[in-house]
Amino acid sequence: MTFQQPRKFILIKDQLEWFQTSETHKKIISYIETLNEAVVGVKLADPCEESEGVKALLSVLDKVEQICKETPPVNNAASRFGNPAFRSFYDKVHEVSPQLHETLPNMPKESVLEVSVYFNESWGNRARIDYGSGMELNFLCWMYCLERLGVVKPEDHRALVIRVFWRYLNVMRTLQSTYWLEPAGSHGVWGLDDYHFLPFLWGAAQLRGHKYIRPKSIHDPEVVEEYSKHYIYFACIAFINSIKTASLRWHSPMLDDISAVKTWDKVNSGMIKMYLAEVLGKLPVIQHFLFGSLLPYEGPAPPESIDLHQDDPHHGHAHTMGGGGQREVGWGDCCGIPVPSAFAAASADQKDKFKAPGAGLSGPGIRPVPFD
């Protein structure tokens, strides 16, 4: 196999439609579903064999967190948006990334350039100082590539969720709270939370078939406190409650709606459908997706007039209407209208004042939740 540095290809609707029928798309969904099934009924603290590959990945994540601790935020008290020190953190991670990958067991040296790109992009956007489901998708792709290369094995699937991904989620919470990362995109209050999707998907899988806990239990503070130690879903609810005031109905209406679903099986299957629609099916996310040899692109070419190699984070994708229906992405839908970090609002003792536009409202633009 000839490895190559991953790059962007998708810009227009026709390319997105190709992607949704591609082998790369199928591989990503299959991997999500495989990891999903590996953690059904599994608690975070359950015994789980950690292979040398899994231990190596955890060590890498420890190093990332250490870099964060060594790169404190700059004094930016006048702003509730992303802290510029994140860029220094990002550059440091980028600098040590090749060495970190070369320490992984069975890692082909010639693959480091390709695989490390997914790793580097897992922590947020350097220019915008934001984070969202697209960056989380990069981490998923990183784990997928490492399994393809034999760094981790199929028998590691359970550990990849309840050890590696769980560790990644906690490192990301540290980054989000340290650098006040802004939520990427413009879903705002209608998302699952400001930043993540996969913890809710795999977290629902952990709870499938539970004898006592039901989806509506997320409204019981005592249940949330107790079970946040065991299940990723409840840990995410506890996190949201810790930085936002009022009820989920107001600041997280989609989670509130999902809590009315009768079983975790339906929540889990609905999460997979939602991921297909809201992450892998959205041009604003997939136009930033990176294709290489392990996750190849073999679809229609992007317009020749656009250079996708430029570093400008707004270059290489559409922000205006026109082009015969091909360029349908607005600026806010793509790179997001800047939204202050909820951590910034909370730290300023203004949690009661921070609500995303449209909080608690309904209207024709709100899509139904696919859980029935």
UniProtKB/TrEMBL annotation:
<keyword id="KW-0697">Rotamase</keyword>
<dbReference type="InterPro" id="IPR004327">
    <property type="entry name" value="Phstyr_phstse_ac"/>
</dbReference>
<dbReference type="InterPro" id="IPR037218">
    <property type="entry name" value="PTPA_sf"/>
</dbReference>
<comment type="function">
    <text>PPIases accelerate the folding of proteins. It catalyzes the cis-trans isomerization of proline imidic peptide bonds in oligopeptides. Acts as a regulatory subunit for PP2A-like phosphatases modulating their activity or substrate specificity, probably by inducing a conformational change in the catalytic subunit, a direct target of the PPIase. Can reactivate inactive phosphatase PP2A-phosphatase methylesterase complexes (PP2Ai) in presence of ATP and Mg(2+) by dissociating the inactive form from the complex.</text>
</comment>
<protein>
    <recommendedName>
        <fullName>Serine/threonine-protein phosphatase 2A activator</fullName>
        <ecNumber>5.2.1.8</ecNumber>
    </recommendedName>
</protein>
<dbReference type="GO" id="GO:0005634">
    <property type="term" value="C:nucleus"/>
</dbReference>
<dbReference type="GO" id="GO:0007052">
    <property type="term" value="P:mitotic spindle organization"/>
</dbReference>
<dbReference type="GO" id="GO:0000159">
    <property type="term" value="C:protein phosphatase type 2A complex"/>
</dbReference>
<keyword id="KW-0963">Cytoplasm</keyword>
<comment type="similarity">
    <text>Belongs to the PTPA-type PPIase family.</text>
</comment>
<dbReference type="InterPro" id="IPR043170">
    <property type="entry name" value="PTPA_C_lid"/>
</dbReference>
<dbReference type="GO" id="GO:0008160">
    <property type="term" value="F:protein tyrosine phosphatase activator activity"/>
</dbReference>
<dbReference type="Pfam" id="PF03095">
    <property type="entry name" value="PTPA"/>
</dbReference>
<dbReference type="GO" id="GO:0003755">
    <property type="term" value="F:peptidyl-prolyl cis-trans isomerase activity"/>
</dbReference>
<dbReference type="GO" id="GO:0005737">
    <property type="term" value="C:cytoplasm"/>
</dbReference>
<keyword id="KW-0413">Isomerase</keyword>
